[in-house]
Design brief:
Layout: E1 7-14, H1 18-25, H2 35-39, H3 42-50, E2 55-60, E3 75-78, E4 82-83, E5 98-99, H4 102-114, E6 120-122, H5 129-139, E7 149-154, H6 164-179, E8 186-192, H7 209-221, H8 223-227, H9 231-238, H10 246-253, E9 265-275, E10 278-286
Parallel strand pairs: 1-8, 2-7, 2-8, 3-6
Antiparallel strand pairs: 1-10, 3-7, 4-5, 9-10
Helix pairs in contact: 1-5, 4-6, 6-10
């Protein structure tokens, strides 16, 4: 009998702008301002229906909801059976409870820690817009999310944030972990956050189309080079919150080509300015 293991079939990348969630929740997605944003995800929603995974491993950053200045894990993996939508000051989003996958999450934690990455294991946490907005963009407004989700929170809010190189190498470790899980699960890995934006200070409202699209180009074709870009370049070119883009490198690092496999196929790419005061970027890559 052939032993079967889990595999990563695709990686998904998307901004997680909180105002996008509010537009959906308040029924504003067809308004002229928001329509171009949501139109850019229509093909992805159909792709998601046609390529529904067994589990989503979702990389995002907590926005001072589950964590605060009292506790700042660099990398935290959610190992609970479920995760409640967070109240970020105006009540929880009216979205389904996120069902976890404790068995796979615990296996990934064990494997990645044994590969010398220090993870914080979290058995109870609420999940904010960083995680729920991406699910809404690709899954719509269902009564239940289509599959379990493993939340993976990265600190890109308080200095110091992990380097792009660290994030890419972590993605490689996550791929090894998933592929060593002895059940034939189809797993997608999502990297979220960004793109260029700054929410405060003299440069509030900064958006850099050129930087964002160059980032997408390199993410597809040369992720190793993108991983070498220092933090200061993100901050200078993409705004203080542009550093969220290093989380996309975790998802990219988990793709097969960085372990000697074929280059991934770009299924869909979308970029739009603005959504609220943020550039929205989106990409789907399939392993071949």
């Amino acid at each position: 009998m052939v032993e079967q293991h889990a595999r990563i079939s695709a990686s998904v990348y998307t901004s997680h702008v909180p105002a996008i969630g509010a537009a959906l929740d308040l029924g504003k997605s067809t308004e002229p301002y928001w329509q171009p944003v949501f139109q850019g995800y229509e093909a992805s929603k159909q792709w998601m229906k046609d390529n529904q995974p067994d589990v989503i491993f979702l990389v995002y950053n907590d926005h001072a909801t589950a964590f605060s200045l009292e506790l700042i894990p660099t990398f935290a993996i959610g190992c609970a059976a479920e995760f409640q939508p967070a109240d970020e000051g105006w009540g929880p989003r009216p979205v389904p409870v996120v069902q976890g996958h404790p068995e796979l999450a615990a296996h990934i934690a064990q494997s990645v820690i044994q590969q010398d990455f220090d993870l914080t294991i979290v058995n109870k946490m609420d999940v904010d817009h960083g995680l729920t907005v991406p699910l809404s963009l690709l899954c719509g407004q269902p009564e239940a999310w289509p599959c379990p989700v493993i939340p993976f929170a990265v600190n890109v809010v308080q200095y110091p944030a992990p380097s792009g190189r660290r994030c890419l190498e972590l993605g490689k470790a996550i791929r090894k972990a998933i592929e060593s899980f002895d059940r034939p699960l189809n797993v997608q890995i999502w990297g979220t956050g960004g793109m260029s934006h700054q929410l405060q200070g003299a440069r509030a409202g900064l958006i850099n189309r050129e930087f964002d699209n160059a980032f997408l180009d390199r993410l597809i074709a040369d992720p190793e080079a993108q991983a070498s870009v220092p933090h200061i370049d993100y901050v200078r070119e993409a705004g203080s919150e542009g550093i969220e883009l290093v989380m996309w490198l975790i998802a990219r690092g988990a793709m097969a080509d960085l372990a000697g496999g074929n280059a991934p196929e770009a299924i869909h790419r979308f970029y739009h300015v603005p959504a609220s005061n943020t550039a929205v970027g989106h990409l789907i890559l399939e392993n071949r």
